[in-house]
Amino acid sequence: IHVDAASGGFIAPFTDAGAGGAKWNFELPRVKSINTSGHKFGLVSAGLGWIIWRDEAYLPEFLVFELHYLGGTEKSYTLNFSRPGAQVVVQYYNLVHLGFSGYRGIMENCLTVYLYSFYFSSIAFSLIVTN
């Protein structure tokens, strides 16, 4: 099973809502890979997504490219070869700096704002200032 956690990969693990919900991670033996997008709720600018495999054996061979460069051969499974590394550095910084508790606080705050939006959309209010 591949888990496409493009948006939820940075939400569910860090919230009370996700803590008791259905498991979708490597605790399930049939889950072989998980992807998420750092540029969504991972707090990185656009252009960063990543995937992890349970084991290198599950990495499909057709995704692996052999690069012959400077007299050697390297294997790569990146989709873009030459790109700036800023998003990767920022993602790493966020993961180290914020840690689990930091991401948890941010995601719980997002859910709180979401719940308040229902309250504020239901109350009557009038404009005090006009043009």
UniProtKB/TrEMBL annotation:
<dbReference type="GO" id="GO:0005829">
    <property type="term" value="C:cytosol"/>
</dbReference>
<keyword id="KW-0663">Pyridoxal phosphate</keyword>
<dbReference type="GO" id="GO:0030170">
    <property type="term" value="F:pyridoxal phosphate binding"/>
</dbReference>
<dbReference type="InterPro" id="IPR015424">
    <property type="entry name" value="PyrdxlP-dep_Trfase"/>
</dbReference>
<dbReference type="GO" id="GO:0006538">
    <property type="term" value="P:L-glutamate catabolic process"/>
</dbReference>
<dbReference type="InterPro" id="IPR002129">
    <property type="entry name" value="PyrdxlP-dep_de-COase"/>
</dbReference>
<keyword id="KW-0456">Lyase</keyword>
<protein>
    <recommendedName>
        <fullName>glutamate decarboxylase</fullName>
        <ecNumber>4.1.1.15</ecNumber>
    </recommendedName>
</protein>
<dbReference type="GO" id="GO:0004351">
    <property type="term" value="F:glutamate decarboxylase activity"/>
</dbReference>
<comment type="similarity">
    <text>Belongs to the group II decarboxylase family.</text>
</comment>
<dbReference type="InterPro" id="IPR010107">
    <property type="entry name" value="Glutamate_decarboxylase"/>
</dbReference>
<dbReference type="Pfam" id="PF00282">
    <property type="entry name" value="Pyridoxal_deC"/>
</dbReference>
<feature type="modified residue" description="N6-(pyridoxal phosphate)lysine">
    <location>
        <position position="40"/>
    </location>
</feature>
<dbReference type="InterPro" id="IPR015421">
    <property type="entry name" value="PyrdxlP-dep_Trfase_major"/>
</dbReference>
